[in-house]
Records
---
Amino acid sequence: MSPVGGKSAPPLLLANIRQLLTLRPPSAKSSGPRRGPELNDVGLVKDGAVLCVEGKIAAAGKWAEVRKHPLLKARGKKKVQEHDCRGGVVLPGFVDAHTHPAFAAPRLVDFEKRIAGSSYEEIAEAGGGIRTSVAGVRKATRAELARCVLEALRACSAQGTTTVEAKSGYGLNVEAELKSLQAIRDAAREWPGTVVATLLGAHVVPREYQKREDEYLELVCTKMLPRAAKAKLAAFVDIFCDRGAFTVAHAERLFEAAKKHGLGARAHVCQLTSSTLWPLLRFEPASLDHLDFVADEDIAQLARHATVATLVPGANYFLGLNRYPPARQLIAAGVAVALATDYNPGSSPTASMPFVLSLACTHMKMTPAEAIAAATINGAHALAMGSCKGSLEPGKDADLALFDVRDYRELAYWVAANLCAATVCGGRVIHQTGE
């Protein structure tokens, strides 16, 4: 995880905010990710302001109240760096809780094949898909991969994202997976936001282990995972459970190994086909992702757990699918829902969380407020970071995004438009339109 890195930043005052979305808990009793009707409460404050001191939120609310803060009065307004938000909208920086940035090149041949009518699975069976990226990652140097990851992180922050979960998964052997995680760490040190690394050694079975899934998973559990944990290269492990990849039983084995080495768990599930998920819930995974084909009985089980359902509609869009994750059913059942880009070279080459908000509203029928809560506070909980990320409350990290709009609903309304005017990480303005 990269540090917030804002402790030496001068005090920063964001003023002239038409709509401030604090995402504060709806009540004093509320804790954990948002569920059900709570998703529609974005903590809207009109005529707002935010004061950031030493990388943390010192005050966030109405300007009439923030201006009375002791720190502002003691230092004097002239000694505080002031950012005029020009009547825009300010909200917590997006938390993108599912990305795959450690790759060497886009998959353009796969793209053309899909246009010609080939499905995701047909492309994979023909030798394309995830395995296409493996050769490039194995050949690339750590420095080359780090540059690719850093480019992705900068693209994220240009659209208002301040925290990113970054997976390995295109190396598929011990050395290439560790190299990928090292590259993620190197890039994170150069980016002012926060990066949470995930080992996805169990992405698919590499060619050299075809028909030997158990043997490859044993390699992941006994060689790859322990080395990543010892070097503190990852906070989580992940696995792709679906047809053509791994089973839920494989995920149980991986999660057991992760628990032994002190790593959290998350998984890709039910993207292409339905799987029985309840055996995984005993491990209390932080997140289960995709869930396009999740069964009704598993939705009921998810609602009783802290596990977040992270939905990635960008993949459905790019793959040209008619079916999207059942967001309305999940929300109605009380499941904690997050949104993420699934940034990757094969099925979702976008770093834009605002675009994901638009897809969530138009294709999954989430309200703009639900989508924003899912992309901020619930994304933070999907990374076990709800105590420091995802809302604008005193003491939390000063990570914010300013948008050049007059109403927060415009974030999902304007399709594929980047209206992010400024991004703040750890109390520092790290991106500003025109710079």
---
Amino acid sequence: MIGLTANPIAIGAIIAIMVYVGIHISGAHYNPAVTVAMIIRRLTSPKEAVYYILSQLIGAFLAALFVFWFNSALIYIEPSETASVFQILFIEFAFTFFLILVIFYVATDNRTSGNSYYGLAIGSTVTIISFAGGGISGGAFNPAVGTGPILVDAIMGNGNPLSHLWYYLVGPIVGAIIAAFFYKFYID
């Protein structure tokens, strides 16, 4: 099995690169939690959001299948056995909240428009939160990253990974919603 938190530096670096590549195509929507937050801020229409979220979920599933096909290994997303439900949800919530605020500040705020560091800031944030919380919650901070590999894991018959899926849906989505309202009412 390949652990999601195996290399947070590589994960953050690829996110930074993908943000720079995708910003002009889709606004770099790779995370359903980000897309939900963008709807609340009215930076994405609900119709666009449906397409983004479906694409994110399908992409995560296909990526996990590719990893399995290429390495004969599953991407393993699971919280620490010693973490409580509260700790897992809090880490997924709080770090997604933090990630969304960084995205809003560096990629959508008029005061920082035209900057060239947004991808580096977002990728660095993903690296930091992966190091800090990955060992506790599994480190998804993205419902697609939680869903795709867990579904592939379930299809391949490896235990009961679906029991953890709700952490990666509830924590990040609630974190994104609260971050969007926080930004909208206190910052914007």
---
Amino acid sequence: MHDQPNVPVRKRATSLAHDLVEVLSQQILLGQFRPGDKLPSEPTIVREHGVSRTVVREAISRLQASGLVETRHGIGTFVLERESQLGLRLTVDTAASVRGILELRLGLEVQAVALAAQRRSDDQLRRMRQALDDYQAQLANNDSCVEEDKRFHQLIAEATGNTYFTEIMQHLGDSMIPRTRVKAEERGDADFERLGYLASLEHEAIFHAIRKQDPDAARAAMVLHLTNSRDRFSGA
């Protein structure tokens, strides 16, 4: 009987550790902490997240177990190289391989965007909006908007609240938006400015569905976007 008052405390600590793992994992998988970067010190994490040292230590232990970080005693905790964690090797240099990646993304992102529409936070929505605004600015200047395109899709994965979506999208990296890596004669349509504009309209439809928290509309918008993207390479 004397041990029972401690049970809720333990459950609370475990829950806090889980929440902290989710936050740090998302920061790592989205590249806010890159391979080789040192995580903030234990006292800094305690202060920034309002948790105890015990919670921080448990969270770091879980990150180590998942292969995201390693702790070097007396030095600190460092983010591990991502390439070594997933056994995927993606070569995207032909129109056929681009279509293959887009088919993979159809299977992945249609579900992700539905979850994002249900679970996204206001801050995540704001960052998606910023990514699309940056995309438009790059497009208007005839500059590459691949990074902004990639960031928008990675933010959708983050908004699912499921780190596995984020991890896979992070691993896809540049292969996620591979159109600029395909030889011009294989693209099927060399007018990339027009393609960028069409993609922009599709992104806006996805964003508005997420903003309205409408998972069905979000699924439909993502299917349209990725199917159109795939079909733009049909001339290869």
---
Amino acid sequence: MDRRRFLVAGLASMLAARPESGEAQKPGKVPRVGLISNGGRQTHEPLLGAFVAGLREHGWAEGTTIALETRWADGDLRRHPDLTRELVALPVDAIVIAGTAAARAATQATRTIPIVATVLGDPVVSGLVSSLARPGGNLTDWPGRRVTS
């Protein structure tokens, strides 16, 4: 399975399974997904287009059945904490990120919002978890194991 299909399928299952905190979901509520890109809009717009196309293949239509909130780091990884805090404050129902720096920022910003990470190095070596045996947490990396505590 290619990475785009995996991410879309993982995101869709996380949104469908996410319990609401103590109250019923409002009728017609559209899930809001935050995406943080390491690059800029011009260089990474094709990746966003591919992601949106993958969502469409799985029955999600941007603006109708799902809302996307994109944030661009413009090559400055130091922006990840601020960008993540913006998404958490909206709030979003899930966050999609790439890389260990973004994963670190996202896991520090929220312990409850599901985070889907791509291009993630070894989570133990990077300090995201102390063990893979009991990861817990809200971060799922490729190939889909939960990796943070």
